[in-house]
Amino acid sequence: MATMIWLDGRLVAAEQAKVSVFDRGFLYGDGLFETLPVYAGTPFLLQRHLDRLQRGAQALRFANAPSAADWRVAVAAVIAAHPEPESTLRLWLSRGTGVGLACGSARNPTWIAACLPARRYEPRVYAQGVAVFASERIHALPEQAPTASKHANYLASILAFDDAHARGADEALLCNARGDVCEGAYSNLFFVVDGVLTTPPLSDGALAGTARACLLELAATLGLPVAERSLPIARLDEVEEAFMSNALIGLAPIQRVLREHAAELRWPAPGPIARRLSAAYAELVRAHTGLTWPLLQAPQPSPPHPIPATASA
Q1: Count of structural domains, the chain
Q2: What is the C-alpha to C-alpha distance for residues 134 and 184, in angstroms, rounded to an integer?
Q3: Which residue(s) pair with 154 in the sheet?
Q4: What single-letter DSSP state applies at residue 19?
Q5: Which residue range forms the structural domain that includes residue 145?
Q6: How far apart are CA 122 and CA 90, in angstroms?
Q7: Residue 70 neighbours by CB distance under 10 Å
Q8: Which end of the chain has fewer CB atoms < 10 Å from its terminal CB, N or C?
Q9: Strand 196-199 vs strand 42-43: parallel, antiparallel, or unpaired?
């Protein structure tokens, strides 16, 4: 656990970091969060996360939300207080305490920053790929919830991941009410269809993932054909390769899809496009931090098991 926490404008010891039981983040999931890696003391792609946090605060009609400059002060403080150069940076923003459901009932947001232990994945995640379970739970559309933001009401994703975990999968695949593939429980999804790198558009309910945006930019730089377009679940059999992305994992190939009422799907993992993008992403990390990506934990002697979920994309 982090030794020092930034809470509402100051550093406090973790055991002294208290939030009211009347905080709306606790009561209603009325909040936002960001999770990102810190490599060699540098929060990777921090500005992208702060931009999304600011957009989310506007979408949720937060009053008096901290500015990007405020967050940078908090981030610098918790990184300086953390004993390790690699960590996981977590930012929380709640509407604060207030009575009733009206947004205006809470005027002083609760805001928190902390450095947690670094999340490192097993080599097999990148070398062999992951298994995904096609969930039958329905993902919200943008007109139903602020799906582009990292809002704290995460129960649908939690239950979908738990379904996947119970079946031995690493991640869940979620569709919206139209039957279009949307995203994972904690990741954005990419597919290669007819040679085109395809990812669900934000209008289908996909999160505006920071790694997602980064990979789309890298793909364009590499001259890869790219499309943000809907993929009906019925067309999953036409996919040639697939991978998932989030801020902590970067990108990881998808090896197979487990389905409740249909045969399992298998793809090459990693496929040729995932290999090219992985190399480009590794170079981006090296350019910003001087480190080799991915940072891996030592191989485990036990059989493969689902990777631990962390709500980040």
Answers
A1: 2
A2: 9
A3: none
A4: -
A5: 123-289
A6: 22
A7: 15
A8: N
A9: unpaired
Asked whether residue 1 carries a pLDDT value surpassing 50, the answer given is: no
pTM exceeding 0.85 = yes
Tens digit of each residue's pLDDT (9 = 90 or more) over 43-67: 999 999 999 999 999 999 999 999 9
52 token code pair? 């999304």
The CA distances from residue 311 to 57, 66, 116, 207, in Å, are 18, 22, 14, 12
Question: What would you report as the CA-atom Rg of the chain, rounded to the nearest whole angstrom?
Answer: 19
CATH code (residue 11): 3.30.470.10
Residue 235 forms part of a structural domain:
yes
CATH of the domain at 131: 3.20.10.10
Contacting residues for 223 by C-beta, under 8 A, at least 6 apart: none
> Is 306 within a domain?
no
Same domain, 188 and 132: yes
Position 139 in a domain: yes
Residues 129, 108, single domain; the answer is no
Task: Let me know if residue 78 belongs to a domain.
Answer: yes
209-264, pLDDT tens digit by residue? 999 999 999 999 999 999 999 999 999 999 999 999 999 999 999 999 999 989 99
As a whole number of angstroms, the distance between CA 50 and CA 53 comes to: 5
Helix, strand, coil shares, percent, the chain, to 5: 30, 30, 40
* pLDDT per position as a tens digit, 271-284: 999 999 999 999 99
Q: Encoding tokens for residue 9? A: 């404008």
Q: Based on the domain organization, do 274 and 167 belong to the same domain?
A: yes
> Phi first, then psi: what are they for 91, rounded to 5°?
-120, 130
CA distance 226 to 128: 24
Question: 310 pLDDT exceeds 60?
Answer: yes
- Residue 141: per-residue pLDDT: 95
